[in-house]
Amino acid sequence: MRTDSGALRRMAGFGAAALLFSLLVIAVRVRWVPLESVDRGIAERLNAAIAPSDLHTAIMGGISRLGSFGVLFWLIAIGVTLVAVRKQYKLAAFLVVTAAGGLVLDPTLKIAVGRLRPVVEQPIAHGGGNSFPSGHSLNSLICYGALLLVFLPALRPRWRRAALIGVGALVVLVGFSRLALGVHFLSDVIGAWSLGIAWLLVCTTAFELLRRHEGERVTHPLEEGIEPEAAGELRPTAPHRRTGRTGTAVAGIAIAWVLVFGALVAMGLPLARYQDGNGDILWDRTVPHWFAGNRHDVLGRVTIIGSEVGNTHAILAIGLALGAVALAAIRRWRPVVFLVTVMFGELTLFLSSAAIVGRARPDVENMDGPMPTSSFPSGHVAATICVWAVAAVLVVPRTRSWWRWLFVSAAVLMPAWVAVSRMYRGMHHPTDVLGSLLLAALWVGAVWWLIQPNCDLTAEPCEEDAPPARSDLEEVAAR
Fold it and tell me: Where is the chain membrane-spanning (predicted)?
């Protein structure tokens, strides 16, 4: 009886959501005056309240980004990686199909309805394309809702209601931020939510029918998720004993950061002061001028790619992918903490030392334009060394397969490509690259020694009762 009532509730929910969306589409298309009046009145009042305050504008902008394609894409990608590595292929397909639906529905309906964006007195944001439905509101509901339904079994029962409330509040805040920024009407947001609920219900019902076809029991998605049996595989880590060494590691990392920072400043300040940063120490002047005199269109295209693969966005993408795979395959937090600590420390060391040193860029044409940071050290090179060194440190000890040497090669070749590209484009001196090598070598070595990301492979493991990480990685490679 409960099974039938659950199916009936889903059907009723889909019918209500689809009906509301259809009515809103009709009202928007015929420009129903009462709806237009409410929409424009709310848009004007919110604009008058939000636009004069830079703080309010910044807060709304930050919340809005949580519903952007860039954020949602990476959340779904990480979720798919986690479940796929742990052989939950149905859940991976559910996430991909559900998220893809939002990508299809949003632009096509915007074109079909053709509603213009709000025109407010004090514009504070710009939205591309048409207005109905709100893409941020639609995709945030779909993506966060799908992730919740997939990973809900990993939560303890007493936390599940809080997770539902939290996700619901986040979706509401994203929708409100789009209104507050003046890029959508209220009916755009409500229409997006109703469409998103309808799509989620369709995908959830399809998944439930697949479970029934395979002889599995009926689920209650909002109470236990769509695949309760996968709870053990969906939990981030396997059970293990805590060692109580966290305080020691934190203190050691803080000390290491200060010492590495001191080494960078000690190396960088003399370089910045000597001949205004463009002295010929270790060919600091000769190399940039030689590259500037031998530039070529083909080399320009090769080096711009080399420069881009070391920028913040590329490194963040590589780091997120590496962290997701490490957590899914190794099932311990230490490798992820190692990655996050290395990358965050590298970023703060680079920014802090660059601010103190203040070295000028090479006195040749800077092909990438003016930069907000100084030349020493190279942030691109340091970040590239760190992320690929972490990958090699985590992979090489955990498998004997031939492909582990690809990570070692990447840890050498990728930084070399980025370093040559940055010098070719007139953005760094050779000693800037040496400073990056110093930063990365000292910092990665110190963090590795303090966190011990591979200690589960030693004879006396630091975390007990966890599955062997070596076989996990080898199974991933085999698949």
Answer: 66-85, 92-113, 137-155, 162-186, 192-210, 249-272, 312-330, 337-358, 378-396, 403-421, 433-451
CA pair distance 91, 291, nearest whole angstrom = 51
Peptide bond into 461 cis (omega under 30): no
CB 319 within 8 A of CB 339: yes
CA neighbor of 125 nearest in space, from 39, 46, 51, 49: 51
Residues 113-127 have pLDDT tens digits of: 888 888 887 888 887
Number of domains in the chain: 2
Contact 130, 114 (CB under 8 A): yes
201 and 317 part of one domain: no
Of how many residues is the chain composed? 479
Whole-number Å distance between alpha carbons of 131 and 43: 13
Cα–Cα distance measured from residue 372 to residue 298, given in angstroms and rounded to the nearest whole number: 27
Q: Cα torsion for 158, 160, 162, 164, to the nearest 10°?
A: -160
**383: exposed, middle or buried (Cβ count in 10 Å: 0-12, 13-18, 19+):** buried
Q: How confident is the model at residue 479 (pLDDT cuts 50, 70, 90)?
A: very low
* Residue 93 and residue 60 share a domain: yes
In terms of pTM, does the model score above 0.85? Answer: no
Place of tokens 């703080």: 55
**Whether the Cβ atoms of residue 382 and residue 350 lie closer than 8 Å to each other:** yes
CA 100 → CA 49, 87, 136, 143, 200, distances in Å? Answer: 36, 21, 14, 9, 12
Domain coverage including residue 22: 2-234
Helices 379-395/333-357 angle, 10° precision: 160
Same domain, 255 and 217: no
Whether 178 and 268 share a structural domain: no
* Torsion sign (Cα): 447, 450, 451, 452: positive
